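Apologies for my clumsy wording, but could you write out the amino acids of a protein and the tokens describing how it folds?
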Amino acid sequence: MSKNKKSLGAVNQRSTRIAATVFLLPVILLLIIYIFYPIIDTFRISTFKWNGISADKTFIGLDNWKKLVKDMKFWESFKHNVVIMVLSIVIQIPIGVALATFLEFINKRKHISRIFKTFWFFPYLMSSVAIGFLFTYALATNGGIISTISGWLGHGNIDLLGNYKTALVTIIFIISWQFTPFYMVYCMAGYSNLSEDVYEAALIDGANKAQYFRKVALPLLKPSLISAAILSMVGSLKYFDLIYVMTNGGPGSSTELMATYMYKFSFSQFNMGYGSAVAGGMFILITAVALITMKILNRGGEE
């Protein structure tokens, strides 16, 4: 009898392994083809001098990497990515939490809640390219919204995107306008995991809504906020499309990011070897920053 049970258990384990292999194999193949192979090939191409089109490649070893380490424009673009990362977290997540908290408190008023949800979530539904063109025209020096209002007040035109002092900050606010709804929904999902009994118990103990949020809800939302911060950080470090559409890294290099810098070398100057080195450096920096941030945030969460 025990032998039959053992053989039956072995058959079940084998069938489980076969089923797991069948379901995981397509995913593993896709990861290899679309993620791991491109990463490895990027590092391989970075050791060549190549225009990306011709069959002639000249092996130059680590010359592109030596150039990258000394390339101040690359490090400046990395600094811009870090600025976007920090300000995105500081702006988007607190506003997202505030919007989600407001919707949580008026959740019983279904019609009003739906209106706010639809209105606030709308920017996230638009593509970054469309938003880029929209704000490019809205912030135009001649005829833009800001310049028009400035004219009504008796002042001259204002060029927010053409001024190297204001271009990056302006784009950060546009990015925040687009992506804050995502963190609003993310926090709403976190609120949905909180039991109503906790809220009712806090009210019975004499806490008002502000005290409930600060002392009860916010600590319970901390894991969700950590995940949101990591998502915001990684997304900010690889940002490309909105910057490319609105400023193409200008004026000068005041809004240059690692992704736009890589694109210019790879597809505008046809220096695929150095562009691959920039992409490899971008991959290393993003991975390092993500791992360090996750370690710090998770350590804080454990405490």
About this structure: The CA atoms of residues 87 and 228 lie 14 Å apart. The mean pLDDT is 87. The radius of gyration is 25 Å.
